[in-house]
Structures are given as structure tokens and as C-alpha cells.
Amino acid sequence: MRKATGYLFCLTAFSVLLLDSPSGDVVLSSANIPVATAAQIEDFNTTNTLLLGVKANDPVAATPAQNAKDKWKMLTLNKRNLAGIFNRYGTEAEVNNAYDWNLLIDPFEKFRFVYDLAMQNPGKTQSEWPGCIDYAKQLQRCDSKDYNGRHCLWAEISPYRYFLNTNRWFKGTHDQHCKEGEFLKRGDTVAVYGFPVTDKAHGYNPEIHPAQQIWFRYRQKTNSSKNTYFLFFIQDASDRFGNWSGSPIYGQFLIPFKGKPSPINVSLGEPLTMNITIAEKYDLVTKNFPQYSQDADDGYNHALIVDGKKIVSVNEGQSEETNRSLGIKFTDISKLPDGTIQGYVQVSMVLGDYNTDPIGVVVLELEVIKPRSNAVVNPIIR
After folding, report:
1. Distance of alpha carbon 21 from its chain centroid, rounded?
2. Global pTM?
3. Consecutive 10-residue runs of the chain (382 residues): their mean pLDDT?
4. What stretches of 39-195 adopt beta strand conformation (E)?
5. pLDDT confidence of residue 292
6. pLDDT at residue number 67
7. Residue 250: per-residue pLDDT
8. How far apart are CA 35 and CA 87, in angstroms?
């Protein structure tokens, strides 16, 4: 890794001067880190408590082409993160020999604004809107007769057909409804990112469509010492959204961290550690886009050091291919009044070369390991 000397490291909304670092890690002084705003604190807490400790972002703020707007009406001017309780899953045949993933979500109260905005549409036909289905009845009829009083909404996207038919996350669910995947189970929290829209074909019901980013907990590998997640970034393959999903598309996952530098010797404990691996990929081309493939420092391990203490460490394996396929940076770093440092590990990806069909998919497995009790940081572990 290179030595960072007098190098300006650009963070979200501000820049700070890096100190000398023989290891090449990102080194900051807390004196140069701005105090967190109320908006930063609220966003951090929402990400931790409602979004499973992960949020998504589109760095280029892509918007749909006119052909998509004819069928879907955007409810907001930008894409949004949304999370809730997973109710059921199914696939649905669409145009161009594509199939939608349909995830029915009972959104948390903070994200009910999507439903409320759709209610304002004068053309709405609520009898066509989906409802949450009681779990006890899902294996019976799986239709509107089983709806309860809660308001569910769809998160939908058409993944690459080969991935749809062969992926292990929703194995055996093709062309079926009221199912669950191998990993995402009824009652689990699931989070998505995309444009809130109304669907004209279904009574202007509210949806997140296409839900380009989806994530949920990998419960089999989650325990008291670590949380593990699957993070999906998918290019819609139905050719319904024009330049919104046309190659290339850009996506980011941001994982929050929090730690307080202290005089305790860092060797007494490990920092918050994140291990990121690529579980599956098609047409992942980040390496062709230096702006997004560049890491905060060289090498396969990336660490943030504040006042001489390692706050967070990120590992992306030992493969040069993986290293060039993901851009890892530390962003939106701020400090609380008590000196605690908070920020995000930003993972950038690009799908789809300019001359390829929309087949881009990447699935990340993220492992967040809690520091030992005598570590120098005290992050929120979701």
C-alpha cells in the first residue's frame, strides 16, 4: 500500500488532510473532522435501526426514460431506501420474455409515506392494490380473500433470466406465489432501494420499481458476535425502463460505523471489521470506471485510523479481480459532541458495459464483526 502524505482525501460534503501513514491506511485527526449535523445523526440512526445497518445510493441519480413514465408515475424526485417486514415472494411474467421478482413488503412506519403519496392519485383503484396476507393462510388460497388490514406494497425488478432461474437465494420459487426464499423468510426484515412509483396497470398501486438494490440478513451466519448480509445490485432486464436501466448503471452500498478514539492501546482489541466477498456476478465492470473502482487506499485491506486508533477495518479478500470490481471508501465522516466518530464504508459498483444487454447482477456477502469488549471502539451492532 502507498504512503499517504499530504494527500487530500475527499469525503462527502467536506475534505480533511490525511496524516503520514506508512501502511497506506486512511489516517485522520479528529481536530479536522466536522461536528455531525442533526440530519447526519438522524440518517445514521435510521440506517442502523430500520435499514438493517445498510443503505443504498445511486451516485449518478439515474431517472427513467419516457416509456417507463407512461406506465409508472414517480412519486418522488429521487430514489429512496425503504424497509419493512417481508410478507411473500413470487415471480410474474412480463414483456420481452422477462420475469419480475415480486417482493411484498409491509413497510415500517417511517416509510409509509410511499403508500400515503399513492393515496393522493385521483385515478387510484384501491380494490386492485395488494394487501398483506396472513401467514397462516398463505398455503391456502394466496389471494385477496386472505388479506389482513395492513398495507403492503411491492418491490419489483426483472433480473437476468439465467440468474433468475439458477440463483440459490430464491431456489424453487419460479412461477409461484406466496413463497419464501432459501434465505429470506416470512417475517424477516428486508430493505430495498429504487424509485417509489404508482403502477397504472394495477390501479396506481404503490411500488418500488425497479428495486435495483435489495438486502437482507443472512441469518444462518448471524450470531452474537457478527451480522452477515446478502446485498443485491441488479440491472433490470425487461427493457421497460430505457436509459434508467441501460448499461452502464451505478450503485453503492453504505455501511455505517461508529467508534470513539481512546488512549487504550489498539493492540488490546480488534476494531469493527467488515469482510466483503462477491457471492455471484454477471457483467460487473467496475474496473473499467476508475472513478468508482478506486479505493480509499491501495491493497485488499482498508482501515480508517483517527488520532492513532484504528476505528474500522474493511477486507475484500485477496483477489485482484475482486479488488478492482469494488471501490471501497470512507465517507460522510463526522464527530459527535463526546468525540465519537461516525461515518460509512462506501462500496461502489458498476454493472453493464456500454454494448451489452442488461444482464448485470452482483451479490455481495457482507460480514460485520463486533469488536472484542476491550477494543477502542463502541459501534452500534445491528
Report:
1. 31
2. 0.89
3. 28 35 76 97 98 97 71 91 92 79 95 95 88 70 75 93 90 69 91 94 92 96 95 91 80 95 56 95 96 90 93 88 92 96 98 86 96 48 45
4. 55-57, 72-74, 80-93, 99-107, 153-157, 189-194
5. 97
6. 60
7. 96
8. 40
